[in-house]
Design a protein that fits this description.
Elements lengths: L1 E7 L5 E8 L7 E7 L3 E6 L17 E3 L12 E4 L2 E4 L14 E8 L1
Antiparallel strand pairs: 1-2, 1-8, 2-3, 3-4, 3-5, 6-7
This protein binds zinc ion (2 copies).
The site of one zinc ion has 8 residues, from loops.
Length: 109
């Protein structure tokens, strides 16, 4: 079972994301990353090489949420497999400030 989060910033940016793995055996194990070109993206962390999923991009120069420099070193976090999502003060893809918060809004199969 995976988790659904609402990513929200005080600048007005909101985006619903899936984190973790669905019930289907072939479902991807998703975690949020930051791409300089595409902002907040969801990446299958089970892949051998982690890349931006956008077909025009596919860069491997992506940075994981939950660790610096796009998330703070300390703060409340929720574990997903071997990664942890930092809930407050993450990099916002819209205003580029460290004001993006993730709140759990549900689960998905
Ligand atoms: Zn990209
Ligand atoms: Zn913002």
């Amino acid at each position: 079972m995976g988790s659904m989060y609402l990513a929200e910033c005080r600048c007005g940016y909101t985006h619903e994301i899936h984190v973790g793995k669905g019930a289907m055996a072939d479902s991807p194990d998703l975690f949020p990353f930051f791409c300089d070109q595409d902002g907040l993206i969801l990446v299958n962390v089970e892949a051998t090489r982690l890349r931006c999923p956008r077909s025009h991009c596919r860069t491997s120069r992506i940075r994981s949420y939950g660790r610096p420099p796009i998330s703070p070193m300390f703060g409340k976090r929720e574990q997903h497999g071997d990664r942890a999502l930092t809930l407050s003060d993450n990099l916002c893809p819209a205003c580029q400030q460290m004001n993006l918060n993730f709140s759990l809004i549900g689960n998905f199969d």
